[in-house]
Amino acid sequence: MLDTFFQALVQGTLLGGYYAIIAVGLSLMVGVVRFINLAHGDLAVLGALLTLALIQGAGLPVLAAIMVMLPLMAALGWFMHQTLFERAMRGGFLLPILVTIGLGAALQNGMFGIWGSNTRSLGADIGTLSWAGWSLPGGIIVGQLPVIIFVTAVLVIGALHLVLKKTRLGRAIRATAADPEAAEMCGVDARRAHRAAAAIAVALAALAGVFLAMRGQVTPYSGPAQLIFAFEAVVIGGIGSIWGTLIGGIILGVSQALGGLISNQASLLTGHLVFVAALIWRLGRSWAADHGGWRASVRAALAARGLRRNARRTGDLP
Amino acid sequence: MSLLSVTDLTCRHGLLTAVRGIGFTLERGETLCIIGANGAGKTTLMRTLAGAHVPAGGRIALAGRDITAERAFERVRSGISMSPEGRRLFADMTVAENLRVAAENGRAGGWDMDRVLGAFPQLQPLLDVPAGRLSGGQRQAVAIGRALLSNPDVILLDEVSLGLSPAAIEGLYQSLSAIRESGEMGIVLVEQDLTRALGFADRVLCMAEGRSELQGPPADFTRAQITAAYFGIHDDEARHA
Amino acid sequence: MSHTHVLAAVSRLDKVLIGLGAALAGLLLALPLFGSPLIVDKLTLLMIYIILAVSWNLLAGFAGLVSVGQQAFIGLAGYFVLRLAEAGMAPFPALIAGAVVVLLVAWPLSWFVLRLKAAEFAVAMWVLAEAIRSVIMFDPLVQGETGRSLVTLNAIDADLRRTAIYLMAVASAILVLAVSYRLLRGRLGGESQAIRDDEEAAGSVGVSTMRVKRTIFLISALGCAIAGTLWLASAITYQPRAAFGINWSVFMLFMVLVGGLGSFLGPVLGALLLFALQEAFGDFGAWYLTGIGCVAMLFALYAPRGIIGLITDRLGREPLSMRKELDVRSERRGR
Question: What ipTM score was computed for the predicted complex, to two decimals?
Answer without folding.
Answer: 0.91
